Amino acid sequence: MFDRKSDFRSSYDFFKGIKDSFSCVPMMTLTATLSQTQVQSLCADYLKNPVLIKGSINRSNIKLNIKSCVTSKKKKSSRSAVKENTKEDIWSECATDIKNISGDEYAIVYMDFRSDVELMTSSLKLLLGEENVRPYYRKGMTHNVKKKTDSVFIGKEFQVLVATESYEVGTHSAHVDNIFRVGCMRNLSVMIQEFGRAGRSGNNTYGFLLINETKDDQRLAFWTKNCSKSEEEQIKAQLIQSWRCVYSIYCGRCMREEIISKFGEGQLELQCVDECCSSCDIKDERDFNAKEAIRLLLQAVLDLGLIQAYKDK
């Protein structure tokens, strides 16, 4: 409720009175991704003399991956005229990547808008089969259909669920091995919630953030629509923070450490030491033996000197 626009948050204002109306009734609030400021607000405004029990947001069994996401471009005909792709084509390359990464494993693909969910579902059905992919979104889908979709996915009756963030909070599908978030998240909490749907049984799993820098930033206009000035600035600041996390792979910073630091608690522990994040993969590839490199360099200089001395003779 702290993460939404004011018109959404105002619906929760009446919760502030519960602590006084039911002063003798124990209450518990549960959350995974509140900042320290939001925790303080929750404790002060909604609870009375609370006891705070806090764990780490770090999921040690999930590797954090960042990959480029390609959307289909305009095609040229034999006469060099530009031909527009149909809407169904836009996510075809991304869908192919998702298929190749997932293999036979179960996956959830998160997207921000219902229209993209429907298009991605169509693209994945062409690759995986009509019965192997289903969509899930809030508006336009009845409660019974959503309940049925969730039930059959938990029952492993199809392989890939394509969903908006309406499926991210509180869901528990223990068999999911791969999570794909298509597009840079509007804030870090979104990615933590979505990646947290994987590895519920404790096995090693993978979260993939698929980014397209040009296309992703175009969604800012939608997120800030009808916002107050202060809300707009907050949304922009959160998106900038998300991009800083993405660009950690270019700055030599561990992506996992970057996320943990933003939420204040937790230790960098891994279930598998070689499965941290894309940043650490790149860092490991860059690491080299400095002493050996210097020795080879000095040897090369010496050899060049000897060659030059031989030529001088």
UniProtKB/TrEMBL annotation:
Residues 86-243 form the Helicase C-terminal domain. It comes from the Eukaryota. Its EC number is 5.6.2.4. Gene3D superfamilies: P-loop containing nucleotide triphosphate hydrolases. InterPro entries: Helicase_C-like, P-loop_NTPase. It catalyses: Couples ATP hydrolysis with the unwinding of duplex DNA by translocating in the 3'-5' direction. It is an enzyme of class 5 (isomerase). Belongs to the helicase family. RecQ subfamily. This is DNA 3'-5' helicase.
